[in-house]
Amino acid sequence: MTDQQRRFVSTNRRVREDRRFVAGAGRYVADLDMPGTLHVALVASTAPAARILGIDASEALAMEGVVDVLTGEELSAAVTPLMNGLDTPLVRRFPLAVGQIRYAGEWVAAVVAESRALAEDAAEKVRVRTEALPFVIDAEAALEPDATPVHPEHGSNLLLDRTFDWGPVAEDFAAAEERLSLRVTWGRNSTVPIETFGVIARWNPWEEMLDVWASIQMPKYADQIARALKLPGNAVRVHYDVDVGGSYGVKRGIKHTVLVAYLARKLGRPVRLIEDRLENMRAGDAQGPERIFDIDVAFDRDGTVRSMKMRALDNAGAYAGRAPFQLGKPIGAIVGPYRIGSVQYRAMSVTTNKAVQEAVRGFGQAPTNYAIETMMDRVAAHLGIDRLELRRRNLIRAEEFPYTIPSGSTYDSGDYHTVIDKVLAHADYEALKAERDRLRAEGLCAGIGIAACLEPSGGNSSFEPLLNEKNRTSTWMEGSRVTIDALGFVTVAIHTTSSGQGHETLAATVVGEELGIDPDRIRVTRPDSLSSLPGNSPVGSRMAIMLGGAAARAARNLKRQLVAIGAHAMGIDPDTASYEAGTITAPDGRSIGWDELVDIGHRRFHDLPSGTNPGLTASFIQQVPTGVALPKDGKVQMYPCYSFEFHLVLMAFDPVLAKPEIRRYVIGHDCGTVINPHIVRGMTLGGIAHGIGAALLEEFTYDEGGQLMTQSFLDYLMPSSHEVPSVEIVHHCTPSPLTEFGQKGSGESGYLGAPAAISGAVQDALSPWGVTVDKLPLRMSTISDTIADAETAA
Amino acid sequence: MHMDISGSEEIEASRQRLWEGLNDPDVLTKCIPGCRKMTETAPDAYDVELELKVAAVGGSFNGTVALTHKRPPEYCRITVSGEGSLGTGTGTAEFTIVETGPETCRLDYSGEGEIGGLVAGVGQRILKSVAKHLTKQFFKDLRKHFDETRQDAGAS
Fold this sequence. Notes:
The complex is a heterodimer.
Chain A: H1 16-22, E1 38-44, E2 50-56, H2 58-61, E3 66-71, H3 72-78, E4 100-101, E5 107-113, H4 116-123, E6 127-132, H5 139-143, E7 158-166, H6 169-175, E8 178-186, E9 198-204, E10 209-214, H7 221-229, E11 236-239, H8 254-267, E12 271-274, H9 277-283, E13 291-299, E14 305-317, E15 342-351, H10 365-383, H11 387-394, E16 403-404, E17 410-411, H12 416-427, H13 429-441, E18 445-457, H14 463-467, E19 478-484, E20 490-493, H15 503-515, E21 523-525, H16 543-570, E22 578-580, E23 583-585, E24 591-592, H17 594-603, E25 616-622, E26 641-653, E27 661-670, H18 677-697, E28 728-731, H19 754-766, E29 775-776, H20 780-793
Parallel strand pairs in A: 1-12, 8-29, 10-11, 14-15, 20-21, 27-28
Antiparallel strand pairs in A: 1-5, 2-4, 2-6, 3-5, 7-15, 8-13, 9-10, 9-12, 13-14, 16-17, 18-26, 19-20, 19-25, 22-23, 23-24, 26-27
Chain B: E1 2-11, H1 15-22, H2 25-31, E2 35-42, E3 45-54, E4 57-71, E5 75-84, E6 87-99, E7 105-116, H3 118-122, H4 124-155
Antiparallel strand pairs in B: 1-7, 2-3, 3-4, 4-5, 5-6, 6-7
């Protein structure tokens, strides 16, 4: 199918969800009004590590409206530990601390009361007697042999230490003309949605059913709840028709959910927990990767990068969860968009006494891209080659696709050189350089940053079996169902919550495209989890590919039924019939319209072709394209599709104040066929804003006493309209050969390259002083101190 | 987070009277900002209950205070530790009273503490100025106490 033949895909159509959001008519978990609901407030640990000697809740329990105070001891006797991604059975995690506190802010007890205010007041009266224990905050300190293990039963702080050798690394290093080493550090930031996590659980003892409404973005959520509570899978019903106010990975409140679900069963009333900002920041277990990269790179004097050794040391926080897998996903794009022939990759994850790490947009790819791009800048500087020229020499060329990288993943398609050329032409690169030099002549620091990055998309979970041999997962499917009702109207069912990705627009657009029906006339529904087809939720930049694929193919199956019915009615071979906008036409010009087809399908079994079921419905469960095999010899096909983005940034700042200002931001973006241009544009702009936060502002900072210093938006700095410039997007389309319409993912676009580009721009601005910056976020104070030190030394 | 505090204050009271005041739970209850109650549990040991507001955060703090290394009427070490909805705190301070006249003296104090929990995380950027403010408040009330007792003494 070519662009010209498409009626709805890639066209300028409104995003249908926007109407209710803009009108303030979204339905969020906090909007649900359930009679008799009880409310939870948490008692938070003040120490980063301590033994719990006793919890005295008598004063709290005596207060008005207080129904219960739950401790970890009681809860852990009733539920199973929360899921671990790795095979680390002795790193046990429960919603409330059991016996030992492992980070400041960790939940020690839950107070249940008739209102949230009463619960909060009572939480202040719960007395926790503790004995302080040694703690460790820094990832490298946690690795020391004498470091205190966060989980003594586990024996050390090491959760994962795996070295992969792909290709002749030693030979390539020996043969290379040059090599250099660098260290870069990615600070602990996250996505911090305005809507904190919230969940309501209700137990119906007569149906033996647990109903859950949550602000959730999580694969296998219902399964995990059932397993933790030791309930049958069909006794947990998650309601997906709840709007989620932002997530990008972090809305995974499994500990919150198990806690309220247990309380709902115990107390026989609906129980609701909505985090306040402090609970969210310090103990929502939603902080992102924090990573130290040590890189050795081998290259020739002509700029050819031959080989790379990368060690990534990640600070997972106090419990394992799925965080260590964020070291695994980037393996699928470990060489970025470059032809690097061999790679050694050592992935290390350690526990520390910080809040638990959770998935964040890109699942570890943004930090890795930052490391790769900084490496490319350093190689260029070392050789005295222009940064762009160095990249051009190493980029995979359009004619080389499909291209298999050393770690075993095959990139589907791309045209990196063309995207870069389009951006340079749009921005007038020479004029941009002249502008930088003019700013410098005025006495400002000015620099240009560039980043060429990949967004792997269509998420499977190949990193799971790769990093945990007990895990045999090789599918990460997504299902959709399309139905034409007896009145002839079309309904698409999607089986997940959405947190701003526009899945309703996506599903309606692709089904409208297949059936030739105006998408605005198609209804999109979200059945609950027990009425849903199997799926894995919107993670790994996958839904355009996976839900788009499932809905389109279900619609195509339905179209096939309609054609069979129409052909049978006209007495012709279905292969000779044509379908256009709901009408079946025979080669001789006769036709049967939509109403007649619907009438036959729903009412006239006697007119159906033999072997056809009555009723017009079709389902399709989409397997991830390419995802069929388990890893072999440390190699695996990670995500199937690879979007490309090229950032070009001009920054300027005063050498003393050093408040970075973005003067120009241009991004070239190629995510294959765009299903809805507004959604992709929104993702890209938001992703760049998110990347500005990661590069310059946002960090969960712990002091030497193990206390979180950035618990509110006073200290955890989010980019605002003051920091986010207007962004120029240069569009390019290299369709993926693996997907229904040629689409690739774009849910992480912008974020995957912006930190690298901004860091590069600051670095370029500092080049007159010959100093380097190598840690994100780049604070104003760091930049001005770096300049001042250089001036003093000179 | 770690915190240091130190300073000097001139007080219009004799060394002996200042010493007695600083060892009198009733005087301290009146002068320590937010102090609700101070109960002697043993010689030179007290339980204290505070209600304080730091930045946007208000709450309670329950702790123990111990006075040690006493050399009346000039030197004393004070140890505080406790916790509450505001967070946790431990600290030690020492003070020396220097006679500067028959009815005046100077109190030199210095101490350090470790603060954890809510106040550390939320109020850290203003914690030092809050501590200074609370100290100022303490001495203001202490002076007021001596002014009042002096007037009472004059009136009788």
